[in-house]
Every structure is written in C-alpha cells, then in structure tokens.
Amino acid sequence: MSVTLTDQDKTTLRTAAYGAVTLLAAAGAAGSPHKIATHGSIALASATGLVGHVLAAKTKDINLYGKSVAELADHVLPALTAAMSLLKKQAPAEADNFRNTVLVAVEAAARTHQGEPSPTLADMIGKITGALDAA
Asked: Which of 5, 44, 107, 113 could form a disulfide with 9 if both were Cys (CB 3.0 to 4.6 A apart)?
C-alpha cells in the first residue's frame, strides 16, 4: 500500500521530529546544545521507511524559531501530536516508526551528557513523549 502525504503533512512530520531535538538542545543549554543537536539529528537521519524518506528530504519548510523554550514548545509539542494523528489515520505502521524514530533521537541526544540526563532534559523528554502519546 502506497501512502501519499501532502506537503503540509511532510512539513508537520519534519517540524515535529527536528523540533523535538531542537527542544532538547534548548533545554540542555547548560550542557552542550551542539552535541545534543548533532546526536539527535544523526539519529533522525538514520530513520527508515516513509518516515525516513520524509525526514531525509532537503527542504527549508521547518520553522523552529522562538525567543524562548516555551515559544518553541508551543509550536513543536502540538506538531508531535498532529504528526502521530495523521500517521495513525494514513499509515499506522509508520506511526509506530515515527514514534520510535523520535524517541531514539531523543535518547541519542540525551546520552551526550555523562550519566543521567539533567532534570531539565528529563522533564523535556517527558513532555515530548507525552505529546507523541496524546494522539
């Protein structure tokens, strides 16, 4: 079965996935935001299936700007929920793939720190997971 996603659907997926990594980088600014972003982005680039093809596309349609973590979260967390909702309706197996891909990226990003993630990172990971599961 072939799934066709609109350009807006693809933008939502990319915004959600890369936004999750960006949120962690912003929340972990006391650590190494560049390492967080790098490790998370590498994990996203390793995705397979339809999700992998969407995330690998070279586009400029992702808007991850905000003056604060709160502004970024206001944009990204709903995108995570929307991405899961649209994939559950159009390609249920890809919904699981997307969720797993984002969580692997979050885990990869969080492991850039020695030991356990900071309380700030742990809290943001919980919010990202909650947004994924809200759909």
From this structure: 5
pLDDT per position in the chain (135 positions), as tens? 467 899 999 999 999 999 999 999 988 755 678 888 898 999 999 999 999 999 999 888 888 888 899 999 999 999 999 999 999 999 898 999 999 999 999 988 887 556 677 788 889 999 999 999 998
Report the 3 state secondary structure along the chain.
CCCCCCHHHHHHHHHHHHHHHHHHHHHCCCCCHHHHHHHHHHHHHCCCHHHHHHHHCCCCCCCCCCCCHHHHHHHHHHHHHHHHHHHHHHCHHHHHHHHHHHHHHHHHHHCCCCCCCCHHHHHHHHHHHHHHHCC
Long-range pairs, 122-125, Cβ under 8 A, ≥24: 123/27, 124/23, 124/24, 124/27, 124/28, 125/24
The pLDDT value given to residue 21: 94
Cα–Cα distance between 118 and 121 in angstroms, integer?
A: 5
